[in-house]
Structure formats: C-alpha cells, structure tokens
C-alpha cells in the first residue's frame, strides 16, 4: 500500500465524497446489505459510477464497471466500503476489479463482515493493484451504523424516535398524543421508518393510539423515483407484546403481516393470521429487550426504529440499549398533568444520563434534535 501525497489525499477525498453521495441512493433499499457507492476515474475524469440498490442485485463496483465498458484498465476505483472477496448472492467484486485491470482501489473503510475484514484489499494487493483505505472513513461508517454494529456485536443499531412539547410532555393524561408535532415532522418520521430495517412499538401504543407503523408514500416528501425505491422495500413491523394483549382486529394487524415478540408462549399464537410470533425470555415479567434485539440481529436486522410510549422507550433507555435519540419538539405546552418523555425514575442529578447532541435543525414549525448517549461504545 502506497501512502498518498497531500495533493493525492485531497483528490481522493473529492472523489470519495461523490461515491458517498451515490451510496446514499441506497438509503431505503439495501437492507440487510450495507449502502455502498463506487466511482471509477481515469486520467482525471469519472468514467463509471454505480451504487448498490438492494440485496441479491449487483454491488456498486459491478454497476460502475458496467458503465465503463473496456475503459477501466489502468483506472482508479473509489468505493465507500472494501470490495467483497467471497461469493454470496453475487460474485466477488475483487475478481471483477482484477479482471478489469484497474490500477488502484481506494476504500472509504474496511468491511466489518468477518467473511471480508481486509481480505478484499489483500487480494487486490496480491494482484499488483495499489490499495488505500480510510478516506472519509467517518462518513463511510456513518452510512451504515446498523451493519457495522451487527457485524461487531451481534446487535442492531437502535434509534428511538420521540416527539414532545416544549415542556417535555408526549401525551395528555388520557394518553392522547396525535398530533403534537406538525406535518413536516410527520413526513420526516415517515422517512425514518422507510430507512429502518424494523419499526418497533409496544402494546400500549397500539391499543391507545391505534398505531399501524406503516410507510405512507404520499407523506414521504420525496421525489417520485426515490419514493418508488423506498416503497419497494418496506421495514418489518414489530410489536412488543409480552402478554399478547393486542387483538387481531387492531389496526396494527390489519395493516399487514407483522412480527410479534412475546415472552408468554400460547398454544394459539402461531395460528393467528399472517403474523409471525417470536418467543424470547422474560425479564421482570416483561419481554427481555436485549434478547429481542439479539433475535432480530440473527434475522439480519441492521437498524431498529423504536416508536413507542414512555414505558417501552424508557425501558430501552434504562437498559442502555439506545444508540441514538431523534427528538422532535413542537412549539406548545401540554401542561404538568401530561405524560413525560420517558418513564425513567431518577433520584439524583448525578444519576442523570449524559447525551451528546450531534445535530439540531428546524423541521417546519418544529425542531429536530439528534443525540447519542455518551457511554455508547464506538461502532
């Protein structure tokens, strides 16, 4: 591996930024595969581009090579994730790059998949191709937080969506919570759902709010082509219902097949329509959430979006299972009798969990705050 000069590093970052832009086109569709983009450059000109659209279909490198014809020989390939070196649903990209005669491959980051984990670049180097990795690595990893976490820890990335008033309340005393925020926020939440592998809620939210957790094409706020992509791969809807309290005639079940996670086996639970039931251990009388996440990761789930009430969201928080909070704040007060953001009793200020706010932005008339627990280990 030859270390690039300062000038070459600037050039590499420029082209990798374009590859990352392409990778984001797969934001809604690649699960369980990572989002990957690729460009091919020859004599200072981009001659090929590609991105991975969905599992089972060609990877980004293959799409980019197809657009170059026989011009890839002697070129530099920029790819956001290390090229694969094994035969899965598709042939290994490493073989295609070697066959094409490329001179140099620059990767944003190494692939955390144990089947690859550096072997892709090693095979390229053995074939006489100059390799380099770590260009815009932070950005490349940020595109696939769930894929990296699942490969390293056997757990999905958990994002908890919360909506509250300026006084930190999420619902009236009677449980009514629709709608605290405005239409722009509801559109943003639809996009969060479309990005996720799984959208997860609890029995109380389904029973009180009649929640369905579907992705609505007309509310995504995307262009026609991107909307079509998003609707082509919908997230799995998961219900945490430890005591099987939600009846089959609930709007949640009528909205389509769902996965119900419970800890109370029932003789009839596997005979309830088109829905699948997953039995996990109990923890203090409730579904063991950690076990549930392990089971979801075993099903190749990368990212979980939790849309639940204060009790279930609070349980995820208390058990240190949250990787990121997305909090929407509406410009209104709900009053002291309204329900809190999380059910999380804290006795002392010293016990208050610390969060790192990573982004704040306006969403219509509301505000969106993205924050991460500071104790979360880097993935």
UniProtKB/TrEMBL annotation:
Gene, per the UniProt record: ribD
Species of origin: Candidatus Pseudomonas adelgestsugas
One Pfam family from the record: dCMP_cyt_deam_1
Signal peptide: none
Cofactors, names only: Zn(2+)
Pathway: Cofactor biosynthesis; riboflavin biosynthesis; 5-amino-6-(D-ribitylamino)uracil from GTP: step 3/4; Cofactor biosynthesis; riboflavin biosynthesis; 5-amino-6-(D-ribitylamino)uracil from GTP: step 2/4
InterPro entries tied to this protein: APOBEC/CMP_deaminase_Zn-bd, CMP_dCMP_dom, Cytidine_deaminase-like, DHFR-like_dom_sf, Eubact_RibD, RibD_C, RibDG_C, Riboflavin_Biosynth_HTPR
Name the UniProt record assigns to this protein: Riboflavin biosynthesis protein RibD
Catalytic activity: 2,5-diamino-6-hydroxy-4-(5-phosphoribosylamino)-pyrimidine + H2O + H(+) = 5-amino-6-(5-phospho-D-ribosylamino)uracil + NH4(+); 5-amino-6-(5-phospho-D-ribitylamino)uracil + NADP(+) = 5-amino-6-(5-phospho-D-ribosylamino)uracil + NADPH + H(+)
Source taxonomy: Bacteria, Pseudomonadati, Pseudomonadota, Gammaproteobacteria, Pseudomonadales
Functional description taken from the UniProt entry: Converts 2,5-diamino-6-(ribosylamino)-4(3h)-pyrimidinone 5'-phosphate into 5-amino-6-(ribosylamino)-2,4(1h,3h)-pyrimidinedione 5'-phosphate.
